[in-house]
Amino acid sequence: MSEKQKKPQKLKARLPRGFVDRDAADIRAVNEMTARIREVYERYGFDPVETPLMEYTDALGKFLPDSDRPNEGVFSLQDDDDQWMSLRYDLTAPLARHVAENFNEIQLPYRTYRAGYVFRNEKPGPGRFRQFMQFDADTVGAAGVQADAEMCMMFADTMEALGIKRGDYVIRVNNRKVLDGVLEAIGLGGEDNAGARLTVLRAIDKLDKFGPEGVRLLLGEGRKDESGDFTKGARLNADQIEKVLFFVGIKDYAQSAADLAKLVEGSARGSEGVEELNQIGHLVTSAGYRPDRIKIDPSVVRGLEYYTGPVFEAELQFAVTNEKGEKVVFGSVGGGGRYDGLVSRFMGQPVPATGFSIGVSRLMTALKNLGKLGQSEVVAPVLVTVMDGDIESMGRYQRFTQELRAAGIRAEMYQGNWKKFGNQLKYADRRNAPIAIIQGGDERAEGVVQIKDLIEGKRLSGEIEDNTSWREARVAQVSVPEAEFVAKVREILEAQAEDRARAV
């Protein structure tokens, strides 16, 4: 067989690793969830802003997840002017660039929110994707811890607006200055130890995932995971490890405050962090947020290097079943903190900032576990069937469809092979269409349309065993004048909705 006669190979359809396709149910669930979040942010006086998916790589700078190599941790490409651009890793670094670039026009404090996809060029795994959505809120230009306290309160209010009851969530708060004080106390202060401090931060951030013993390995020589991959540790000695584990193991801040103050003794930064924690505790308590909602917890560190003060994390405390069939606490669905240096590096002057980010996909999974999403009803479209294919009839069917849509009713005209009417009803059944609109030549001559209640028809179908009787009975089908058909469709849809409500 010649080369020309060879059958061309089909292109294989492949979804890239670490990415997912989203169906209608997921998209609607996300829209429902983000609408509730947006309502809380707006109530607090925050306004929306949007930044592009791509930034110049140097705008992400040293805050890349693993190193300053252009394509390590982020997806990058070179522009035609040889500048490196990267898909955004989070929504915070782009906001910092936006604020710096528009600083003279922005009213400070700048209170804003935005939702969007972020991208991580990292190893995908169960529940770990390379593209996912975040929903952020930030205050830029407010130096006082009252801005951080407000973030925590808004975080708590958002959880409750989503239907997560008290006791099922907690906003945990710490301060990176306190941790810096601890690291100074164990000999990891100064610029020379910046890399070691970052490794320690990342190790502590895995406390919920790996437990104290896993973190102990990461603080020491390193840890091998189930796949055999080895993560290098911070190589601290035994005494240093014990002090770090004591700090992150504090469960009752009030009882351990004296021990913590002693641990950071001699560190001005550490003492300042302890005082800020005390101030946040006072502010949230004064506003009526008890420790069952907002809690001081030294185990919270947040993995990114750019946090400079208070840090916070929203944790869901109910149990779910993991991939191994084990009952585990659901865990973190978002977090944030103060990042006073991120805008400043563009400006050459101090610009304080604080904010938090919600992991939309992860939180959506949690809400589905609680039965808090997907409650909003989406009714399938009414189907306008096609009995005749001439252009005049088609125009009439299209007019029926548009009249329904103009009345706020979801509707579609059948687009397949209209000559086999049975196929149209099968299509309506697969679409779970509530109603079919039918008009053949006889109905057109009389100026009427047939309206078939497909939901009621399914219910009654079990009572008629003979196909001939079924056709003659025209089950759940009524004839109405063309001018009245929209009103009749609405009446049937409302009756169907009442039936569904009673069934629930």
From TrEMBL:
What does the record list as GO biological process?
A: histidyl-tRNA aminoacylation
Give the E.C. number(s).
Answer: 6.1.1.21
Checking PROSITE patterns in the record gives:
AA_TRNA_LIGASE_II (PS50862)
Query: Can you state which reaction this protein catalyses?
Result: tRNA(His) + L-histidine + ATP = L-histidyl-tRNA(His) + AMP + diphosphate + H(+)
Gene Ontology terms for molecular function: ATP binding; histidine-tRNA ligase activity
Q: Which residues bind L-histidine?
A: D90, L91, T92, R120, Q134, D138, R302, Y306, Y307
The entry's keywords: Aminoacyl-tRNA synthetase, ATP-binding, Cytoplasm, Ligase, Nucleotide-binding, Protein biosynthesis
Compartment(s) where it occurs, according to its Swiss-Prot or TrEMBL record: Cytoplasm
What Gene Ontology cellular component terms go with this record? cytoplasm
Which Pfam families does the UniProt entry name for this protein? HGTP_anticodon, tRNA-synt_His
According to the lineage, what is the superkingdom?
Bacteria
Q: Pinpoint the Aminoacyl-transfer RNA synthetases class-II family profile domain residues.
A: 31-381
InterPro entries linked to this entry: aa-tRNA-synth_II, aa-tRNA-synth_II/BPL/LPL, Anticodon-bd, Anticodon-bd_dom_sf, His-tRNA-ligase, HisRS-like_core, HisRS/HisZ, HisRS_anticodon
Indicate the family of this protein: Belongs to the class-II aminoacyl-tRNA synthetase family.
List the HAMAP family. Answer: His_tRNA_synth
NCBIfam families per UniProt: hisS
Q: Subunit comment for this entry?
A: Homodimer.
Q: What is this protein's record name?
A: Histidine--tRNA ligase
> Gene symbol?
hisS
